[in-house]
Amino acid sequence: MKHMTIRSALRWVVGVMVTLALVMAAVAFTGLHASNDSLRTLNEEDKRAESALSDSYASLLRARLQMEGARSAYEGGDFDSGKTRLGKASEMITQSDARWQDYLKVPRDAKETPLANTLIARRNELMEKGMRPLVEALDKMDLTQYRDITGRQIDSLAGAVSDASSAVMGYRKTRADALVANATRNFRIAVGVLGGGVLLALLLGLGAGVALKRLVLTPLEELIARMRRIAGGDLSDPIVKSAGRQNEIGRIRSVLGEMQGNLAGLVGGVRQGVYAMAGASREIAAGNTDLSSRTEQQAASLQETASSM
After folding, report:
1. Cα dihedral angle (188, 191, 192, 198), rounded to 10 degrees?
2. What is the spatial distance between Cα 237 and Cα 220, in angstroms, rounded to a whole number?
3. Percent of the chain at pLDDT exceeding 70
4. Cα(238)–Cα(246) distance, rounded to whole angstroms?
5. All residues at 6 or more sequence positions from 11 whose CB lies less than 8 Å from its CB, including other chains
6. Which residues cross the membrane (predicted)?
7. Alpha-carbon distance 309 to 305, whole Å?
8. What is the mean pLDDT of residues 170-199?
9. Within the chain, where are the H helices?
10. DSSP summary character for residue 141
11. DSSP-assigned letters across all residues of 193-251
């Protein structure tokens, strides 16, 4: 981390923002997928319930047909055929009971429970007051009782079961349609929100990168270039304070400007000292030359005086 550049850090931050946006999208889509799984499970339950009720009722209808065949055979004196048909009717009733138990195993919600209870009551009435008494009457070959049951209540009992079954399946269909519509609407909303969120994250990341480049990278590169010129001895371009930049970059620029001004003053002072030392050296050299000339003149004068003496 100590050697990471600001540019690399900015790219890393933008990458993290985009990654988080994608992770959020993935989590949301996972939730939608789980919701779809729940809806699929409910749809399978509806199919199980519809299939079980349909098969159970159809088996009872086929049992009625077999019992009618047994009655006709008994009336014609064909007792073996009648017994055979009655046995098939009993098997079909057993099959109907098995499929009915399959329906009872299907989960129900609170709103379906009253409808299901009504259906259970109507079917129990059909079985106890209609189908099983018919089987018992044919088993005893009591055709009078059989005709009495069929003519008095069996059709109304079967119609009540059919109506109750239709009410249950109608509720399940209405509920399934509402759930599908709601799931479809939620899916579209989620896709729109997630798409907008991902797009917003990308735009924010791009905007952050551009803004940080303009506010941080470009001023830093400018300061680095100025520092290099200062390090090279170029103090001719003064750093002017930026009135509109009061952040860390602006403070660094101000401090660097003060440092450049101090360096310029220091170098100017050193330069003036050097110029003063050079002037003094020239004056000393001129004095030495003058002193040497006078010394030579005095020596020549002394020499002439000695010669004349």
Report:
1. 180
2. 17
3. 72
4. 19
5. 209
6. 189-212
7. 6
8. 80
9. 6-75, 79-104, 112-126, 132-139, 143-149, 155-212, 218-231, 248-308
10. T
11. HHHHHHHHHHHHHHHHHHHHIIIIIHHHHHHHHHHHHHHTT---SPPPP-TT--SHHHH
Report in angstroms the alpha-carbon separations of 42 from 84, 102, 107, 181, 188.
41, 16, 9, 14, 21
Residue 14 makes CB contacts below 8 A (sequence gap 6+) with 205, 206, 208, 209
Q: Is 108 helix (H, G, I), strand (E, B) or coil?
A: coil
How do residues 116-141 score in pLDDT, each as one tens digit? 999 999 999 999 999 999 999 999 99
* All residues at 6 or more sequence positions from 89 whose CB lies less than 8 Å from its CB, including other chains: 63, 64, 66, 67, 70, 135, 138
CA 302, distance to chain mean position in Å, is 114
Q: Which residue has the tokens 């299907």?
A: 106
In the block, residue with structure tokens 């009504």: 118
Q: Look up the pTM and report it.
A: 0.57
Query: What is the model's pLDDT at position 1?
Result: 47
Name the nearest CA neighbour of 106 among 40, 57, 46: 46
CB 161 within 8 A of CB 119: yes
Token code pair at residue 244: 């509109």
- Exposed / middle / buried, residue 70 (Cβ in 10 Å: 0-12, 13-18, 19+): buried
Q: What is the spatial distance between Cα 143 and Cα 279, in angstroms, rounded to a whole number?
A: 152
Tell me how far apart the terminal alpha carbons of the chain are, to the nearest angstrom.
Answer: 97
Distance, in Å, from the CA atom of 99 to the CA atom of 49, rounded to the nearest integer, reads: 9
Report yes or no: 260 and 230 within 8 Å, Cβ to Cβ: yes
